[in-house]
């Protein structure tokens, strides 16, 4: 029986909302024949989604990624689950795999889960552990990435990495197809109805506006990057390939322990990101203020201070994120037909766009609160 519906988590999120918007608005005939069943939590969200997308979307109420029995039962009704809500809740993500496994039948194509994860899984520990300067993970050899992540997680568990490895391992065991897009820094304005904000540029720009300077834990921390629309298009491409190919993508799209793919477009040092933040703030007149440095400076900081200021006290995330080498190369997705449209010019423009969004109050905080003129 032909697939007529897919299941989506994260419809109110940054990536999930953008995926949904671009999927539903696509003129591609294969995609137009598909209804998206979105897991939601409130009547208000349901109403807004249905007003915007009409019959192309159906909403299903759930209790979130801890509602394990419901997840298994629901996932068992689908051939494709797009899990782009959260990559940090291992039991919830594995429950989707267990539900999909109920559909595994002899001589029938196995179902797919398309999972989301992130580059901090790949970060080394140059301050408290082992540094790997110059290392680059290439998804042309995804099994090597999986093996390293599994071994690293056994040494130092990290929820997002534990979830990614757990999903791929369990999928292989149960005969389910699984891909995890291990994403770099995601930038750009989301096109969904709810959360439109990324993380890395807004967080670092907010820091610069509040403190008047940049920070560094070392000189080697880096990020690859991808625009949110291009990332959404990567997921859409995978769905389309699964729907259209005679083999349902099996053996064509890497899966399971070979299924960590990188949606990387460009790469920068973290200090370069902070330099761009300082450039736009000084050019706009936001900086300097009376209580901030009069020149553009990036100050050396300690791990605990940055963990407290930027990552809610989480030392492991602070070190992997703000000190780690997370370099990745995405070889597979372009070979499958992925063509990112937002390149260096879009990356540079986003710093101006984010400062404008902050000043207009379109982020989760106000500009006045950042500069200390309003509580």
TrEMBL record:
GO terms for cellular component: cytoplasm. One of its GO terms (molecular function) is aldehyde dehydrogenase (NAD+) activity. Pfam families: Epimerase. Gene3D superfamilies: NAD(P)-binding Rossmann-like Domain. The lineage of its organism: Eukaryota, Fungi, Dikarya, Ascomycota, Pezizomycotina. It comes from Triangularia setosa. Residues 154-240 form the NAD-dependent epimerase/dehydratase domain. This is NAD-dependent epimerase/dehydratase domain-containing protein.
């Amino acid at each position: 029986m032909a697939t007529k519906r897919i299941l989506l988590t994260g419809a109110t999120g940054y990536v999930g909302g953008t995926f949904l918007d671009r999927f539903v608005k696509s003129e591609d005939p294969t995609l137009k024949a598909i209804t998206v069943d979105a897991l939601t939590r409130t009547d208000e969200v349901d109403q807004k989604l249905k007003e915007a997308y009409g019959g192309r979307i159906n909403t299903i109420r759930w209790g979130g990624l801890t509602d394990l029995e419901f997840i298994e039962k629901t996932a068992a009704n689908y051939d494709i689950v797009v899990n782009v809500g959260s990559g940090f809740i291992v039991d919830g993500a594995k429950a989707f795999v267990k539900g999909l496994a109920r559909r595994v039948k002899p001589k029938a194509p196995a179902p797919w889960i398309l999972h989301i994860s992130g580059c901090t899984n790949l970060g080394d520990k140059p301050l408290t552990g082992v540094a790997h300067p110059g290392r680059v993970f290439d998804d042309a050899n995804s099994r090597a990435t999986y093996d390293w992540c599994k071994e690293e997680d056994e040494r130092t568990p990290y929820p997002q990495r534990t979830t990614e490895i757990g999903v791929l391992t369990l999928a292989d065991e149960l005969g389910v197809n699984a891909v995890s897009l291990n994403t770099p820094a995601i930038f750009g304005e989301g096109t969904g109805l709810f959360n439109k904000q990324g993380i890395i540029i807004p967080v670092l720009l907010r820091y610069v506006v509040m403190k008047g300077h940049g920070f560094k834990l070392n000189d080697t921390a880096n990020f690859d990057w991808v625009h949110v629309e291009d990332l959404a298009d990567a997921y859409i491409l995978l769905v389309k390939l699964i729907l259209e190919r005679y083999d349902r993508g099996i053996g064509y799209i890497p899966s399971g322990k070979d299924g960590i793919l990188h949606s990387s477009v460009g790469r920068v040092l973290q200090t370069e990101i902070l330099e761009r933040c300082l450039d736009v703030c000084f050019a706009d007149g936001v900086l300097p203020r009376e209580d901030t440095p009069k020149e553009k400076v990036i100050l050396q900081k300690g791990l605990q201070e940055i963990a407290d200021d930027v990552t809610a006290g989480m030392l492991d995330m602070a070190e992997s994120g703000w000190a780690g080498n997370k370099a990745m190369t995405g070889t597979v997705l372009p070979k499958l037909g992925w063509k990112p449209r937002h390149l260096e010019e879009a990356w540079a423009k986003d710093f101006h766009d984010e400062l404008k969004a902050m000043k207009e109050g379109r982020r989760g905080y106000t500009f006045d609160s950042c500069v200390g003129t309003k509580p």
